[in-house]
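call fold target=Leucine--tRNA ligase
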Amino acid sequence: MYNHVEIEKKWQKYWEEKKVYQTKELSNKKAYILDMFPYPSGAGLHVGHLEGYTATDIISRYKRLSGFDVLHPIGWDAFGLPAEQYALKTGNHPAPFTLKNIDNFRKQLKSLGFSYDYDKEVNTTDPKFYVWTQWIFKELYKAGLASIEEIDVNWCEGLGTVLANEEIIEKNGIKVSERGNFPVVKKPMKQWVLKITAYAEKLLEGLDELDWPESLKTLQKNWIGKSVGHEVLWKIKNYNYELKTFTTRLDTLYGVSAVIISPEHPLVAKLTLPSKRAEVQNYIKETKLKNELERTQLIKEKTGVFLGSYAIHPATNQLIPIWISDYVLMSYGSGAVMCVPAHDERDYEFAKKYDLSINCVIENNSSLPYLEDGLHINSDLINGLNIQESIEKLELSLDNKVSRKISFKLRDWIFSRQRYWGEPFPVLFDEENNLYLVKELVELPDVKNIKSSNSTEGPLANVESWMNVVINGKKYRHDTNVMPQWAGSSWYYLAYILKNPDGSYAPLNSEEAKKRFESWLPVDLYIGGQEHAVLHLLYARFWHRFLFDLGVVPTKEPFYKLINQGLILGPDGQKMSKSLGNVINPDELVESHGADALRVYEMFMGPLTDSKAWNTDSLDGIRKWLDKIYNQFTYFAKNVKLIDDNPELDSNINQLILDVEDNINKYKFNIAISKMMVFINYLGSLENIHSITPLKTFAILLSPFAPHLAEELLFILKEKSLEHQSWPFAQIDKILSKNPQIGIQINGKVRGQIEILPHWTEDDVVNNATSQENIQKWIKDFKIVKVIYIPNKILNIIVK
Ligand code: ANZ
């Protein structure tokens, strides 16, 4: 057994002292290999983190050996709720708590031998970092993409803050916060809003050029939710108002039974006849209690109220009753729909309930509602046409009443949080509430005892110096909100490029920054969990695209290739969680088995993108395998005999180069490891070797996976350490053609298989065949009477 504690410490010290993994001034091909930086929680590193971090480390090390200049950094997404809640509970400040957690994380990462350039470390809570988060915010404001608006927000009483749509999940039909599962309700509040909707089209179109999993692209596409349709203009009988409805099925225009508007529609009051007023007001009140999901669910019983007024059909001039119903949302399309019961499910339910006419306008033999394409009927000038033809014809004939319109499901990003531990907004308000951008850094005030917020303002409202600022005799106050945790993570991958070894940053808006971005962007590989599909990854793409439009970054997209690692489950196959008691602690395993064993084990568990259950026995097996390698190397280092060449060994090691390289390039690390295992088994069958070259080659192939052991193996071979090595070239001409496999027949029936090695005689073939366990059982009680062997074709053994 090798002494992993000693060996791993020794090499970690060596790498650190020699700054082996410091980012070089770019002079070769570049590789920017990025991890999703962790939130430094009190619980420390999770074996789930290690999976992605090992994968990127393998690629980084492989690329370095292959002559690339590599940027492989790490940092801390360190603002956030847990530190704040800890501070509220204990009366301590979140900063020292956060720093302590960071120290622990860094120590853990170092103990695993990841080849990060720690000079590039960034921390989102560092004023040197967030001064640039604030700068981006100010640029967004100047571009009209950030504004304060009184809007219906998602208020979470349990967390005492507003949440973004992306931070809310549905549980049993109720909206709750993703963190903590607290109920979320709609409530009008003044909030910072970022106009991500202005980038909807760009964010959609940008997906095309990305090498991302299709499932992830689909999630983003659906979240952006682009619908191409039409707006139809409806005149109102006896009024001067007009209504617009949004539809993706203009062709069904002749099947309309009602125009239904959202209870929040600004025209509701004006279109309600006096006799209907009480009923309508009551309905609006009830709607306020429901969330969007409750309102729009297909199965939900439809409700509504007829307002008493009528719209005029744009093609037939018929009078169409105007209703309100809560399944029409104000936030989508035009906040109004044309109700076509025969061809839309929800409209059908609505019409059934209120006895509206159901006018079928597409020929079919099935039951209504009929949702498919077909020939139109009862539709005047589009009779006999299909959907597409109908739409084209109506566009032409109703061109002043119908216009093309694109609607997006994407909502603007609510960007304030009523919290303390976040980036302050770089703004001041005077007593008339006029807003001023602050040029310099606005530092989070050092509050000794954070008080819980009341329901509309953050804890900063309790800070005297924050609320009373006097400049040139004039009074101002700061914003009491802070930015959401997504702010720092929306641009941190740029901050690594800006970070200098002395701890300073090149200014984000400088020529120097531009030059560095030209060199290093985009990120070549980004690995992280699937849970960030529509949060971090959409926000970061938005900011990046905005910075591209400003001319700050040279690429439209930040992350060219992205891989979602699978979940590492507990030994019971369940998601690891404290409450289930199935959490595996990496520190203990580094101690007992060593970092290399842990790294190799996690990569060997299965395909990177699959979910995999933990199994400590397999970890033991990997550790034994590493011991075997170590023992073989110590043995062979003393048993090199300059006897004849061994073409078989040369062949196998050159084949291994190809296999490992190919599988690293395909991110199939488990297969690469199994190929190395086969080689080590083969090596174990040799008594001595003719040269250490194959061993040296093997150590280099192993090094991305088990870097400490690989360094030690090179050391044993008296070879230079990894930073002076390069990825081996496979000598294809040394690879022997594959040995033929033939079936072993016993009395004419195939009972097994055998690989025929080139130098084998007929006796070797028979001896090897008959000594196989699965063949033994067919012959052990009999006598071999005849052997028929046609080289490389047939082996038939006749027994009696
Ligand atoms: C008439 C119609 C007839 C419709 C038909 C569908 C089928 P997507 O694809 O999700 O964009 N709609 C429009 N605005 C709405 C709102 N604010 N709240 C609720 N529903 C709304 O869906 C577009 C369809 O959703 C639109 O097309 C409209 O119903 C409805 F046979 O118009 B349709």
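return ok
Residues 227, 246-249, 252, 327-329, 332-333, 335, 337-338, 340, 343-344, 407 surround ANZ (CB under 6 Å). The chain has five domains: 20-125+493-580, 135-206+414-485, 226-408, 615-734, 741-799.
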